[in-house]
Write a structure and sequence with these properties.
By secondary structure, the protein is an alpha/beta fold. Helices cover about 25% and strands about 30% of the residues. It is built from six helices and 16 strands. The chain has a seven-stranded mixed β-sheet with strand order 10-9-8-11-14-16-15, sandwiched between helices. Strands 1-2-3-4-5 form a five-stranded mixed β-sheet, with no helix packed on it. Strand 15 (about 280-290) and strand 16 form a beta hairpin. Helix 1 (about 100-115) packs parallel to helix 2 and helix 5 (about 225-235) packs parallel to helix 6. The longest helix has 17 residues, at about 100-115. It is globular. The two termini are about 30 Å apart.
Length: about 300
């Protein structure tokens, strides 16, 4: 289990009963969490500092109930990065804080390339746009990984089918004062974009993907992770450069074990001739430590890193 340990403006106060009580900056929010099946230590709904609670509807969906004044949006910081937080009508807040463990690893690998190229890393943005590693972020959502990679010196292509979430990513990039030419924004079905990039002969030094369990594209395309992940990873392997840096897959699908995703990545790297380039491949759960001194599971990831990547 990997957990971020550098959050100062986010905490899980308590959990249980299918919910988690979180602190986002100065806001205390209570949201559903299907993993938290244990009994809570106290009545989370009765927490005296609670600003808002999201309750699911028996008819589907749900809604926020606010007990104190809550702004439409605010920001939180992680290390040197800042992100917009805004509660949505489908319980999310616009950021997945457990992903900070993956942001840190991706940024470390990208910055390492800059060092090997003899670039000055004291300034996050010292790498000129044409010299940075090329990173493809699929299902990029509001851009947590995009911001982390671009701030570390990469040129990122951010792809998501939601124009609204892509606009939030753009605002997060601007909030972090990342140069405009560092990120390319694509609003499109991820599989269609990958197929087109293959036809164009494009390549990337690193690939990040965070696919949903189920989704529909703008034109009714259906995505089911169990049915479509393997083929998408195989296609993405065809986009890797001659000297790739890393390939990261994250999933929140509770039925998929970390080793399953690692097997998907490994078998496709073999099929496309990259097995001999692998430096390391690992599978791991990710989670968040709570103030109760327990760990709340929050998905799983697999990452392959490559020999001499980015040189």
């Amino acid at each position: 289990m990997k957990q971020p340990n550098s959050w100062t403006e986010y905490q899980i106060i308590a959990s249980g009963g299918g919910e988690k009580l979180e602190k986002w900056g100065d806001m205390y929010l209570l949201r559903p969490d299907p993993q938290a099946i244990w009994a809570p230590a106290f009545d989370l709904s009765g927490f005296r500092m609670l600003h808002g609670k999201y309750t699911r509807s028996a008819a589907g969906g749900g809604a926020w109930e606010y007990f104190k004044s809550v702004p439409d949006e605010w920001t939180v910081s992680y290390r040197n990065l800042k992100f917009i937080i805004s509660p949505t009508n489908f319980k999310h807040t616009g950021l997945f804080p457990e992903q900070a463990v993956n942001w840190d690893r991706c940024a470390e690998l990208i910055a390492g390339v800059g060092k090997r190229r003899g670039k000055d890393r004291e300034d996050n943005f010292s790498n000129p746009a044409e010299g940075g590693s090329k990173v493809l972020n699929l299902f990029g959502y509001s851009g947590g990984a995009t911001v982390a990679a671009a701030a570390a010196g990469a040129n990122v292509t951010h792809v998501d089918a939601s124009r609204g979430m892509t606009d939030v990513c753009r605002r997060n990039v601007q909030l972090n004062k990342i140069p405009d030419d560092r990120v390319r924004y694509i609003v499109e079905d991820c599989a269609k974009f990958v197929a087109r990039e293959i036809r164009r002969g494009k390549t990337y030094d690193a690939i990040i993907m965070d696919p949903p369990s189920f989704g529909r594209g703008a034109n009714g395309e259906v995505w089911k992770i169990e049915a479509h992940l393997d083929n998408l990873v195989q296609l993405c392997c065809k986009l890797l450069s001659d000297k790739p840096l890393f390939f990261l897959i994250n999933s929140y699908t509770t039925g998929l074990q970390p080793t399953v995703m690692m097997n998907v990545l490994l078998t496709n790297l073999r099929r496309t001739g990259y097995e001999g380039k692998i430096r390391d491949i690992e599978a791991y759960e990710i989670g968040l430590h709570t103030l109760e001194n327990i760990t709340l599971p929050a998905g799983c990831s697999t990452m392959a890193t490559f020999k001499d990547g980015g040189k």
